[in-house]
Structure formats: C-alpha cells, structure tokens
Design brief:
- The chain is mostly helical.
- 75% of the residues lie in helices and 0% in strands.
- It is built from six helices and no strands.
- The protein has helices at residues 8-24, 29-35, 40-56, 66-75, 80-97, 101-126.
- The chain is globular and about 45 Å long.
Length: 127
Amino acid sequence: MKLDIANRTDITKIVDQFYNKIKEDKLLGTIFTDVAHVNWEKHLPKMYDFWEFILLKTGEYNGRPFPPHLALNHVVPLKGMHFERWLSLFHQTINDLFEGKKTEELKLKSSQLKEIWNAKFDYINNN
C-alpha cells in the first residue's frame, strides 16, 4: 500500500522523478534541454515550491510561470500534444509513488492547470 502525499519531501520526490522522465522523453526532453536550456539546479527548487504551494498551501512560491513559457512558445509553439504528454508523465509519476486524497487532489489540480495552459497557448498560437 502506498502512502498519501503529506509534505515537501513527498513533493520533492514527485518533482525529481517527474523531471527525470521529462529529460528522457522524446517529445519534451529536447524542449527542456536543447531549446529552453533549463538550469535544473534553479528550476527544481522552484517546482518544489510551486507544487507545495498549490497542494499543501505552504512554502515560498511567488513566481510568475507564464512569461518564461510564453517566451519559449515563440521558439517552439506549445501545442496540445505537449500538454497531454506533460500531464501523462506527471500523473504516471504521481501514481507510481502515492495514493490517497492529496494524491487525487494533485492530479486534479495538474489536470486543471494543463487545461488552462493548453487553452491559453491554443488561443495565442491561433490568433
């Protein structure tokens, strides 16, 4: 039996394993490494803060994630297939590690985020 997500340590575990999958992914990996040139030492702590804030309402996140993605979109248009793959890998990672109420809440919140961002970039890219 798996435990539920309870703290920042759990969030860190999810984020680390998720981005290990991203780095290896044929669709998303090159965007993160070759196009965005993500500095993982800076990016990962921001993601820990982001998801801790989103799920647990704790932490220090005060960033603005949309502008960097908008800039990236000018180089590689972000499309539905990118958001679908992102969500698939994220949910796969979550399901591999945890189960319970908070786990389901994180999957719901990430699904909602994917829908919002997909709609925004669809609009931007088609207008």
